[in-house]
Amino acid sequence: MKRIFFIGSRLNVYKSIDTSKYEIVCLFVVKNSYLHKLSIEKNLKHYIIEDKESLINYILSIDFDILISNGCPYILPISYLKKQKEQIFINIHPALLPEIKGKHPINASILYNINIGATCHIMNDDIDSGDIISRVEFPITEDLELGLIYNLSFELEKEVFKIAENRGFKIDINLNKSLKDKKSIYFTRNLFNNKIAISNDNIDLIMRKIRAFNIEGQNAYFVFKDMRFEVKECSIITNKKFIDYVSNYRNNQVIYKYDKNLVVKKDEYVILFKYISGDLDKIKENDILN
Questions:
Q1: Of 120, 188, 199, 202, whose CB neighbour count within 10 A is largest?
Q2: What pLDDT, on the 0 to 100 scale, is given for residue 290?
C-alpha cells in the first residue's frame, strides 16, 4: 500500500483517494479551508499549516511514497525534501499549465480569456513547473461566472488526479512535447490591481475585470470622490434606439441611477453596472466617473 503525505486546502482530490490502495500517513491543511472543516467534521487526524519551516521539517521526518499538494500555500524545496529516488511529489493545479501559473489562476482564465481546466504535474523547485502527468481542458465562455468556474475547476482537479493515478503518476511525454511552446503567465491577485479606471480602461478590459472578480471579497471596483464602489456585474446595452437616444451624453457620464445600478456612457457604448456596493447617494445622474 502506497503512503501519501497530503497538503492542501481543497476537498475533491482528497475525497477521491482510494484508501484501499493508499494510506494517508499525514494530512496538513490550510486553516479554515474546506479541507480543514472536513477534517474537523469527520474527526480526521490532521495538522494545521503554521509556517513553511515547520512544514518542511515535518515532511523530512515522515516516510511516504507520494506527496500530494492541492492548495499548499508555499513553494516547497523539492530537491531538498526528496530523500529517495522512488518518492513522487505531485501538484494538482486548478488551471491549465503551463499557460497560467500562480496562486489565483482561475481569475486569470477569465481576465485573459484562457480556457479553464486542471493539471497534475511532477513538482520541482520552481512555481507550478515540472513535467505534466495529465491535464483536462474545458472551454471558457462568457456565461460561466467566477463562482461556477471555481466549482468546475475543483471538480476537474479530481478528474485529472484520477487520470494521473491510472497512468501510475508517469509523465505524459507526448503531452509535454505538444505544450513546450506554450506561453506562460504568472498570476496572483496580490500583484494585480482590480480597480476599474473608467476613463482609461477600454470596454473589454472593464467587462473582463468585473467578470474575473465577481464574488464576495474579490469584486472589481472604481473610485469616485475618494470613495470605493464595488461592482458585481455589468453588461453592454445593445438597444440601438436607446443608444441613439442617449448619444448626447459625454464619455464616462452617468445617464441613469436606479436601485444599485448605474447606466454609464463609455465611448460608443452604454454600460449597465449592476449590484454596486458603496454609498451611491454620493453619485448623481450626469456625474462624470473617472
A1: 120
A2: 85
Last residue of a domain, one of 189, 213, 241: 189
Do residues 109 and 185 make contact, with C-beta atoms less than 8 angstroms apart? no
Looking up cell 515522515 gives 62
Domain that holds residue 252: 193-282
Q: Are 104 and 71 in contact (CB under 8 A)?
A: no
Give the span between the Cα atoms of 132 and 172, in whole angstroms. Answer: 6
Same domain, 159 and 114: yes
- Helix residue ranges per DSSP H, the chain: 12-16, 34-41, 52-61, 78-81, 105-111, 146-166, 173-179, 203-212, 240-245
Residue range 204-240, pLDDT digits in tens: 999 999 999 999 999 999 999 999 999 999 999 999 9
Report the candidate in 172, 178, 68, 163 with the shortest Cα–Cα distance to residue 123.
68
Is 91 exposed, middle or buried (CB count within 10 Å of its CB: 0-12, 13-18, 19+)? buried
H-run or E-run covering 232: strand 227-236
Q: Which residues pair with 7 in a beta bridge?
A: 28, 69
The answer to whether 283 and 257 are in contact (CB under 8 A) is: yes
Closest CA to 146 of 106, 99, 104, 119: 106
Same-domain pairing of 178 and 78: yes
The pLDDT of residue 248 is above 90: yes
CATH number at residue 230: 3.10.25.10
